[in-house]
Amino acid sequence: MKKIPFHTYYLVLSLVLLLSLIVSTRVGAVSIGYDRILLFLRHALTGQPGSTIEEQLFLQIRLPRVLLCALTGASLSVSGALMQALFRNPIVEPGLVGTSSGAALGAAFVFVMGKSLSGAWVDMLGPFLLPLAAFVGGGLATLLVYRLSSVFGKVNVNTLLLAGIAVNALAAGGTGFFSYIARDPQARSIVFWNLGTLSGADWTNTGIVAFSTLVGIGLSLRYSRALNALLLGETEAAYLGVHTRRLKTRILLLNTFLVAVATSVVGVIAFVGLIVPHILRLMKSSDNRWLIIGSALLGAILLNVADMLARVIVAPSEFPIGVITAFAGAPVFLFLLIRAGRQQQKGGFYA
Amino acid sequence: MLSIEKLVCRIGDRRIVDDISISFSPGRLHVIVGPNGSGKSTFLKAFSGEWTPAAGRVDYDGVGLDQFDRIDLARRRAVMTQLPELHFPLSVDEIVMMGRYPHFSFRPSARDRAICQEVKGLLSIEGMGDRDYLTLSGGERQRVQFARALAQVWETPPKGGRYLFLDEPVSSLDIHYQHQFLRLARSLVRESIVVVAVLHDLNLALQYADRMVFMKQGRVVAEGPRDIVTAELVHKVFDVEARLIDDPVGGRPVIVFA
């Protein structure tokens, strides 16, 4: 393990993130020059927005989209780090343990049935109805997978993966049902959204995701030491003063919160939560404090790069971002699975 | 002083620990022995706070175990179990520092670091700080885990004593490391710390224990200094024919199984 201090890594990652954000605001169907970007930002900060189409495009579409993308990447990656610590397994991520597909089902329900829901509480919830439904769906699915995988006391990876497959299939079936009964435009949006899309970004939903991401990461950091202790095992963590049952409930809730809110806005983006903590572990250490802060930064960077690709390769149209992350992530997942299998044969660790 | 009164632990209708009253004083190495399923591990879990007993009391220096909050308890009581399984690479330093987790809330203080340094020196693992735990041998891992447990109870709390419990700490080690470990554990027994170990190997127990506790079917069958060990007692507890012979060189008794 290398001897470069943590804050050097944080500094470098932050700088790379900033750079990727700047480059990302520039490229797309319409490319905007850096001098123009600076000018628009100055306008926005001094509160005297110009009215050119380019400026409107930048402030109302490009900028929220780039920020939403970074926030989503951070949310999903931190969730991945949390889930891996909780299940004590490096091949777990929100997409595998049912959180994403459950959240998708909850959101699809609102997409299709939202118009027929009525009552004061629906009006009261307003823009929060969608994230809330996603939260309920994601929470139930995660809980189900967790319960199924720990039926025999200890969480077993094979049971976990199988339970994940079953619950994901169930949720996908539900989402499919909703898109079947949906009227056409709704169905189309469900399909797109199942592949992950950032094109719906506006300041309202970016604000909601910003809130969930920042609060979620802040809370996660509070649990980083307890999660480290949990790496030794539940009994050992309890002997170190950790209330393990309470910790597990809270981490599951936190994971659902982070993933569900992001998913309700951008759809299902798989594998980010798997790759990012893994890279960080190879880079430096498995300390969860590092993994959480690092995942937030690196997750934001990677998803931003993926989104840039999504906008550039088929410009002026755009490619579903979930497809890109799946192409990049699935091979990494397979690699980890094969390595885990090898280690098991040697009578060693993992799984 | 650890005092246990009429302790009962149940799984369903079965009494795993059946009405045990005993006390453990500081400054001596107490060793619990007994056959598989005699309830020794459950007993240890119950008096270390990991298992909620069905009845009875456990007092740490006169204060009931249920009166402590988790952190307060973790500051005075450390438990070393059989080698925990790790799934992620962690450095030796990170694991030893976990012993200090109950003592700081966000960042380790200079004092926490100094303590980790000290225990590492004591266990001669000071040079391994940066090594990945997963690459260590069984004996090295054992020392790292022991260092973690020691770091946890390194300082005497403002009120009450310190407690170090070892649950079959040497069962995964070869003979060399078993002896090395127990010699070390013995040397660490000081006036202010209560040390209780559960061991599988009778001869090891006989060699290192100041006081032995024999358990069978959830009860304490016999307890006392090693003189209490007789062929009859071993037969009664373990159901094996045994002879006690004196080692012609050292003079201490050795159990030979027929």
Write structural notes for this entry.
The complex is a heterodimer of chains A (351) and B (258). With 351 residues, chain A is mainly alpha-helical. Chain A has 15 helices and no strands. Chain A has helices spanning 6-26, 34-46, 53-87, 99-113, 120-125, 129-149, 157-181, 184-194, 203-222, 224-230, 234-239, 244-266, 272-283, 288-312, 321-345. Chain A is globular, with a radius of gyration of 20 Å. Helices cover 31% and strands 28% of the residues of chain B. Chain B is built from eight helices and twelve strands. Chain B has a six-stranded mixed beta sheet with strand order 6-7-8-3-9-10, sandwiched between helices. Chain B has a four-stranded antiparallel beta sheet with strand order 2-1-4-5. In chain B, strand 11 and strand 12 form a beta hairpin. The mean pLDDT of chain B is 89. Chain A binds chain B through residues 1, 3, 88-90, 225, 228-229, 231-233, 235-236, 238-243, 281, 285-287, 349-351, and chain B through 48, 50, 70-71, 73-75, 77-79, 81, 84-91, 94-95, 98-99, 101-102, 130-132, 134, 152.
Set down the secondary structure blueprint.
The complex is a heterodimer of chains A (351) and B (258).
Chain A: H1 6-26, H2 34-46, H3 53-87, H4 99-113, H5 120-125, H6 129-149, H7 157-181, H8 184-194, H9 203-222, H10 224-230, H11 234-239, H12 244-266, H13 272-283, H14 288-312, H15 321-345
Helix pairs in contact in A: 1-3, 1-14, 3-9, 3-12, 3-13, 3-14, 4-6, 4-7, 4-8, 4-12, 6-7, 6-12, 7-8, 9-12, 13-14
Chain B: E1 2-11, E2 14-24, E3 29-33, H1 40-48, E4 55-60, E5 63-64, H2 70-76, E6 77-80, H3 92-98, H4 110-122, H5 138-152, E7 162-167, H6 175-188, E8 193-198, H7 202-208, E9 211-216, E10 219-224, H8 231-238, E11 242-246, E12 253-257
Parallel strand pairs in B: 3-8, 3-9, 6-7, 7-8
Antiparallel strand pairs in B: 1-2, 1-4, 4-5, 9-10, 11-12
Helix pairs in contact in B: 3-5, 4-5
Average residue-wise pLDDT of chain B: 89
| Chain pair forming the biggest interface | A-B, 26 and 30 residues
Cα shape of chain A: globular
Number of H/I helices of chain B: 8
CATH superfamily of chain B: P-loop containing nucleotide triphosphate hydrolases
- Looking at the structure, the CATH topology of chain B is Rossmann fold
Overall helicity of chain A: over 70%
Identify the overall geometry of chain B: globular
How does the helix and strand content of chain B classify structurally? alpha/beta
How many distinct domains of chain A?
A: 1
Estimated radius of gyration of chain A: 20 Å
In sequence order, what are the helices and strands of chain A, one letter per element? HHHHHHHHHHHHHHH
- Could you give the count of β-strands of chain A? 0
Mean pLDDT of chain A: 84
Oligomer: heterodimer
* Proportion of strand residues of chain B: 25-35%
How many H/I helices of chain A? Answer: 15
User: How much β-strand is present in the residues of chain A?
Assistant: under 5%
In this structure, how is the largest beta sheet of chain B organized? 6 strands, mixed
Distance between the termini of chain A: 23 Å
Q: Please mark out the parts of chain A with pLDDT under 50 across 5 or more consecutive residues, or reply none.
A: 346-351
